[in-house]
Amino acid sequence: MQATISPGFRKLLQEPAYCQIATLMPDGSPQITQVWVDTDGEHILINTAEGRQKERNVRRDPRVAVNVVDPANAWRIAIVRGRVVDITTAGADQLIDQLAKKYLNEDTYPFRQPKEVRIILKILPEKINEIGLEEVA
Hints:
Elements lengths: L6 H7 L4 E7 L5 E6 L1 E3 L4 E6 L3 H8 L2 E8 L2 E16 L3 H13 L13 E14 L6
Antiparallel strand pairs: 1-2, 1-5, 3-4, 4-7, 5-6, 6-7
């Protein structure tokens, strides 16, 4: 069942917040990675490169957990369980540049590797727990 991203959580996702994504390894053990994050309003968006462990994991098992934290206030946080519902290259190069602007104040992603293919993991939240994300007037 889909959970709705609240206005307070949407605001946090649009900020340069810390984000960790947990995926499941082939043996069922968890694997966690710190990533940059954004949203389209319905999904949580994670940009990564093709072939990375998290991509291989979610192609096999789409269940994920995501933790998003305000770096200035660790009690402004959202904990999400959900599923990757789409893996796409469409818009991935633009998104990584937008994330570079948000997190590094760089117009383009400075760590791009030759022949690297960027992808977006679109996560549909199924359960969201929030702390301190009341909408600010």
